[in-house]
Amino acid sequence: SEMLQKICIRNLVRKYCQGFTAEKKVQLQQKVVASAVFRGKKEGYLQSINQPFMDTRLKENDINPKVLQLIQGEKIKYVTPVIKYDRNGFKARDRLLVLTQSSAYVVEMAKIKQKIDYATLKGISTSNLSDGIVVIHVPEDNKQKGDVILQCEHIFEMITKLCMLANKQNLVKVVQGSLQFRIGSGKEGTMVFTVGQEPQVFKAKNGQLTVV
């Protein structure tokens, strides 16, 4: 009886796994990574569990042809609208985040504003609150202007895809209170996270970027 029970369970598991489509397998793999990164750490994660991750939020034909020419040869894996905050004045700007097999691109209309090779990615930071802010940390060299500050509506989806494509899920940090980011030329800025009545992102009087 015990032997038959074990065989029966193995057979049921085998049938369950064989019934998976390739799409569903990818979906579950992403959700497993999201769980490892966010469970018990960031507000809003539990509400995101039953929401399937989209393959992409925008299609290739939504990207300017000039940008497609510039990244020719790299397979586009994911595209989503984001708001990028300037590193100095923190002005909000509408951008696209384009993730390929090897790099992340911050795109403005027909221009590539910043390219981040996954191999050089130093870290990915987000807060433990329900905001959609993410900071992509890059190396301090002449090729990079500084860390990238983005706001994304689909924060769990975007970070999961980014860290999986870069194969650097261990570099994702969920921080409390504040975080430091590199402005460029050896300078650093501070981002402060707090709780309030309405979501806001603004430059405080002390010069810090405040996320409510």
Write the layout of secondary structure elements.
Layout: H1 2-18, H2 22-38, H3 45-48, H4 65-70, E1 76-85, E2 92-100, E3 103-108, E4 111-117, E5 123-127, E6 133-137, E7 148-151, H5 155-166, E8 172-175, E9 178-184, E10 187-193, E11 201-203, E12 209-211
Parallel strand pairs: 5-8, 10-12
Antiparallel strand pairs: 1-2, 1-7, 2-3, 3-4, 5-6, 6-7, 9-10, 11-12
Helix pairs in contact: 2-5
Protein name: Unconventional myosin-Ih
InterPro entries: Myosin_TH1
Domain TH1: 42-212
Plain-language structure description:
This protein is of the alpha+beta class and 212 residues long. The protein has one domain: PH-domain like (Roll). It is 26% helix and 33% strand. It contains 5 helices and 12 strands. The protein has helices at residues 2-18, 22-38, 45-48, 65-70, 155-166, and strands at residues 76-85, 92-100, 103-108, 111-117, 123-127, 133-137, 148-151, 172-175, 178-184, 187-193, 201-203, 209-211. Strands 4-3-2-1-7-6-5-8 form an 8-stranded mixed β-sheet. Helix 2 packs across helix 5. The model has no long low-confidence stretch (mean pLDDT 93).
Q: Approximately how much beta-strand content do the residues carry?
A: 25-35%
User: Main sheet, how many strands, which sense, barrel?
Assistant: 8 strands, mixed
Class derived from helix and strand content: alpha+beta
What is the fold named in CATH at topology level?
A: PH-domain like
Helix and strand run: HHHHEEEEEEEHEEEEE
- The multimeric state of the shown protein is single chain
How many angstroms separate the termini?
59 Å
Q: Compute the number of helices.
A: 5
